[in-house]
Amino acid sequence: MSVFVHPISTDGDQLRQYVNFCIDHYKGNNFYVPPLVIDDVNTLNPDTNPASEFCESQSFMAFRNGEPVGAITAIINRKANEKTGDKTVRFGFMEFIDDKEVVDALFRAVEQWGRERGMTQIVGPLGFTDLDREGMLIEGFDEMSTMATIYNYPYYRDHMERMGFEKEIDWIEFRIAVPDAIPEKFQRISDIVARKYNLRVIKFTSRKKLKEQYGQAIFDLVNEAYADLYGYTPLTPRQIDHYISQYLGILRLNDVALVVDGDDRLVAVGISMPSLSEALRKSRGRLFPFGWWPLLRAIKGHSDVVDLLLVAVKPEYQSKGVNALIFCDLIPCYRQNGYKFAETNPELEINDNVQKQWEYFERRQHRRRRAWKKMLN
Prior knowledge:
Blueprint: E1 4-8, H1 12-24, H2 37-44, E2 55-64, E3 67-77, H3 78-84, E4 88-96, H4 100-116, E5 121-124, E6 136-139, H5 155-162, E7 166-177, H6 184-197, E8 200-202, H7 207-225, H8 237-247, E9 256-260, E10 266-274, H9 277-283, H10 292-299, E11 305-313, H11 322-336, E12 341-343, E13 347-348, H12 352-356, E14 363-375
Parallel strand pairs: 4-5, 11-12
Antiparallel strand pairs: 1-2, 2-3, 3-4, 5-14, 6-14, 7-12, 7-13, 7-14, 8-9, 9-10, 10-11
């Protein structure tokens, strides 16, 4: 049967069909963690995604006999292309059945859309920005995903290689056992660094005060610390306002550590939160009618896994042991909250400085994901 690929409008019903197909594609899979439908709908809609200030996008769905069989989004991040000097069209938010005709039709649509706009290469899976889910899973298919990562079937890799895509870059992830006590050497490093640079950790008991006093500073720091990472583009004021509003208001505050200097200027930050993976699986990505309940329980700490969402250190303090201050503060909080394991989420395989911070802990590298690249003819 022929496959037909149609561009998706920003109409809410079409975007919900797109996102629901991507979730239903994994029905019965024990390791897939769905996104919240409303979050992905808002991300794919240029009217509600602040990244649309510098990104152009088009979502496509593939149908056979009127039934959806695949979905993919083409993205041009103009800021990223200006930074690298490349003419890249990204693909992301992608799902498809194991069928050559379907896969080829989806990628033809993205490639043609990119060529029409002067692009010369295709890379992905990537999102609009580095804070979206990115990287195709190539190892760790029998590991529970996290809310911040992509899960996909093993056959996805086969199709990428069949179509002539090559490795662009890999990310790796670790599952870390939360120790019973702060490792002695880790504590010693923390004490030395705190004295040497006059640093201290501050905590908040009010989300409102955290947002007011350090919300902007946190994302300014992220822009500084992540500036040279693969695919990263600086967050705009509109994006920062969006993330402050959307995320800082739901954090469990003792899972957050801010490191400041003698003048109370932010030097480093560690943001984590209870894993929402099981709760999202139970809710199937839908808040209503009853999906909000497991999510609320998870946010309040009914989980034995903590997700390390974000660790950022000012460039002039990197590789100086400042991360030790963050985790010397967080480890006792993790024990108090009943966490047994921590998920690092994706780290670039070439980022040795980040991976060195885990050498003091019992850990295993359990997932690997990849961005693929191909030149457009």
